[in-house]
Design a protein that fits this description.
Elements (H helix, E strand, L loop, with lengths): L3 H4 L6 E12 L2 E12 L3 E5 L6 H8 L7 E6 L2 E2 L5 H8 L2 E4 L11 H12 L5 H14 L15 H13 L5 E5 L7 H18 L2 E6 L2 H7 L2 E6 L2 E6 L1 H5 L4 H12 L1
Parallel strand pairs: 3-8, 3-9, 6-7, 7-8
Antiparallel strand pairs: 1-2, 1-4, 4-5, 9-10
Length: 258
C-alpha cells in the first residue's frame, strides 16, 4: 500500500465514478443508491458482510450485470451504454481477479497466462509471449511454477497465478473479488503484500472486495463500508475503526475479535 506522501503525489484523476446505482433481483433489493469514486493510483477496499452486494457491485463495474438505475463510468466511458466491442476493449484495460482464481484446470500455468494474451493481442511472436508470461510470473513470485498444472498448486499459489493472468495485459484498474477468502493468515498476508506490490509496480487503481478486515487494513488507501445496500461510510482504516456508527462498530468489533 502506498504511504500517505506517495498517495498524495498522484494526480487527482477519477478512474471509476458511480452515482445513484440500484440493483434488484426480483423482490430482493441488493444495491440501494450507491455512490462511489476511485482515484487514479488508489486502492479502495469495499468492506461488508456476505450477501451485502459487494460481488454484485464489482460485476456491474465490468458489465457482467446491468444496473436497474444509475450511472457507472469507468475510464471516462459509461459501461451500460457501450457496444459489445467497446465493452470488450474496456475490459482489456481492467484486471478482474476472481474469488475462485478461475484457472483452466486442463491447461498448465504457462498456457493459462498465454491464453488471454493470444486472444487479445495480435501479431505477438512466441518470444514475446514467453517474455510476457515470465514477467507476470516473476511479478507474483512463481516463475518456477510455469509448467505446473493448477491441481498441483496450493490455494495461495492459485490466487497468485490468477493475479498474474490479469497482469499480463498490463491493466489500468484491478478488481479483486475476495482475494484472501479461504486462505490461512500467513498466505493471506502474502496476498495482501502482492496487492500492494502490484499497485506500486504497475501503477494500478484497485477495488478490493472483501469481508476480511486485515486485508482491508493492509491494502487500502480508503475503505468503503457497504451495509444494507448502501455505503454507510468511507474513510481511512483509522477513521472507520473510530466510527461512532453502531453498525460499523459492531462489524469491526466482531471481526477483530474472531
Amino acid at each position: 500500500m502506498m504511504n500517505e506522501q506517495e498517495y498524495y503525489k498522484i494526480i487527482n484523476e477519477t478512474v471509476i465514478s458511480i452515482s445513484g446505482l440500484n440493483k434488484s433481483f426480483g423482490d430482493l433489493e441488493v444495491l440501494k443508491g450507491i455512490d462511489f469514486e476511485l482515484l487514479k493510483g488508489e486502492n479502495i477496499a469495499v468492506l461488508g458482510k456476505s450477501g451485502s452486494g459487494k460481488s454484485v457491485l464489482i460485476k456491474i463495474m465490468v458489465g457482467l450485470i446491468k444496473p436497474d438505475k444509475g450511472e457507472v463510468i469507468i475510464l471516462n466511458q459509461q459501461v451500460d451504454k457501450l457496444t459489445p466491442k467497446e465493452l470488450n476493449d474496456l475490459r482489456r484495460r481492467i484486471g478482474f481477479s476472481f474469488q475462485s482464481s478461475a484457472l483452466y484446470d486442463s491447461r498448465n500455468v504457462y498456457e493459462n497466462l498465454a491464453f488471454p494474451l493470444t486472444m487479445n493481442v495480435k501479431g505477438l511472436s512466441k518470444a514475446d509471449i514467453n517474455n510476457a508470461v515470465e514477467e507476470a510470473l516473476e511479478a507474483v513470485g512463481l516463475k518456477d511454477k510455469i509448467n505446473q498444472m493448477p491441481s498441483d498448486l496450493s490455494g495461495g499459489q492459485r490466487k497468485r497465478i490468477g493475479i498474474a493472468r490479469t497482469l499480463i495485459l498490463k491493466p489500468e484498474i484491478m478488481l479483486y473479488d475476495e482475494p484472501t477468502s479461504g486462505l490461512d493468515p500467513i498466505t493471506s498476508g502474502e496476498i495482501n503484500d502482492l496487492i500492494n506490490q502490484v499497485q506500486k509496480s504497475y501503477n494500478t487503481s484497485s477495488v478490493i472486495i472483501t469481508h476480511d478486515i486485515q486485508c482491508a487494513k493492509n491494502t487500502s488507501n480508503r475503505i468503503a463500508m457497504l451495509l444494507d445496500g448502501k455505503f454507510e461510510q468511507t474513510g481511512t482504516f483509522q477513521e472507520m475503526f473510530e466510527s461512532k456508527d453502531e453498525d460499523i462498530k459492531k462489524y469491526f468489533n466482531y471481526n477483530l475479535i474472531h
